[in-house]
Amino acid sequence: MKTIHLAQDSIRDLLNHLLKRSPNNYGAYESTVASIVSDVKERGDEALFEYTKKFDGANLTPQNIQVTQEEIDEAYAAVDPKLLSVIRRSMENIRVYHEKQKRYGWFDTTPDGTILGQKVTPLAYAGIYVPGGKAAYPSSVLMNTVPAKVAGVENIIMVTPPGKDGKVTPTTLVAACEAGATKVYKVGGAQAIAALAYGTQSIPKVDKIVGPGNIYVALAKKAVYGHVSIDSIAGPSEILVIADETANPEYVAADLLSQAEHDELASAILVTTSETLAAEVSRWIGIFAEKLSRREILEKSLENYGYILIADSMDSAVDIANEIASEHLEIVTKNPFEVMTKIKNAGAIFLGENSSEPLGDYYAGPNHILPTNGTAKFFSPLGVDDFVKKSSIIYYSREALQKAKDDIIRFAEAESLTAHANSIRVRFEDK
């Protein structure tokens, strides 16, 4: 990791370097993704099966593309009962948290006969993308599916890449069944996003696509946005830790590495007011990296996007944290709650030395699908709001419209929209 004393030039250079990780800079892949998306749109299942054979080595047909009840039963038999219990406890925490996000319709009336309100309606079809293949991410299944279920979505369509044997990883499949996915299809990559966006002979078209994935998935979501809605275009994982001299350097180092192990583009940053802590964290990172299983990925991630930033005050540390707008932000200071009040931009905020980032990944309840690459300045974590839409309700009595008509006509005529004005005026003309 590079150790830097914060200054205006170093901050600017750092921000520019981190933005290189953004999916918006993956231009070299865009033409490939556009070709795949277009092909699936035109040829449907035929193209979907060809790409699955090419990229995943699995032979799909209309008969085996959807997971069957027999495969679900096999998955339950293969999953450790203790892990199944953990999945269920985690899912309950996620459900309880997201229940608190639910919005309800409302109406507001006045004595002269106006009714204004808002109608909240769940999406009819939600598409859930879950990474797969060699890896298993049952936690992502829960984080995508549970809020959709809480929102009231009736059709939750999940896609995930199969292994070469044409099967879905058992833990992923069990999590999907527990969380309430309606159907699970064995497809991944850009071709799966295209199938959800446009529909094929086997896979229904959805209204919104959510969930993280690799570069191809991110760019495919970007390509189909507008035809369907998406949650966001996810980039590589990131963590930023704000710490002072009271922090435990061993804990801080362990937490930084918990994100660096995701991939070589992951970012791990410590911002501290203590040079002593900075040196100790660096030492512990070296100790841990020697014995962790993903050492090669860790080392490349830290070499490329790992930083220890030394700030001259806690206010300066907060300022750089707000500029970076990290996906995960840990505050390990003497009074983390006070520091938290100054944070404006972060996906998820973890307070105190016992609230490490993996707690949010797996168990606490808040969603772990979060904005990355500085987009926490304007995006939020995935939640129930992502799976509903809102309609405005407007009712005016004749008495109420009588009071407002002159204002509306004047406004319409100011914009030279005479038909708008006439729509109001005609209601009050003598016949």
Task: Say what the CATH topology of the largest domain is.
Answer: Rossmann fold
CATH architecture call of the largest domain: 3-Layer(aba) Sandwich
Largest sheet: 6 strands, parallel
Overall number of strands: 14
The number of distinct helices, counting runs of at least 4 residues, comes to 17
Structural category is alpha/beta
Rounded Rg: 25 Å
Q: What percent strand?
A: 15-25%
Instruction: State the distance separating the first and last CA atoms.
Output: 81 Å
Number of separate structural domains = 2
**Regarding quaternary structure, how should these chains be classified?**
single chain
Q: Average pLDDT across residues? A: 92
Strand arrangement within the widest β-sheet reads 1-11-10-9-12-13
Catalytic activity: L-histidinol + 2 NAD(+) + H2O = L-histidine + 2 NADH + 3 H(+)
Pathway: Amino-acid biosynthesis; L-histidine biosynthesis; L-histidine from 5-phospho-alpha-D-ribose 1-diphosphate: step 9/9
Organism: Catenibacillus scindens
Active site: 327-328
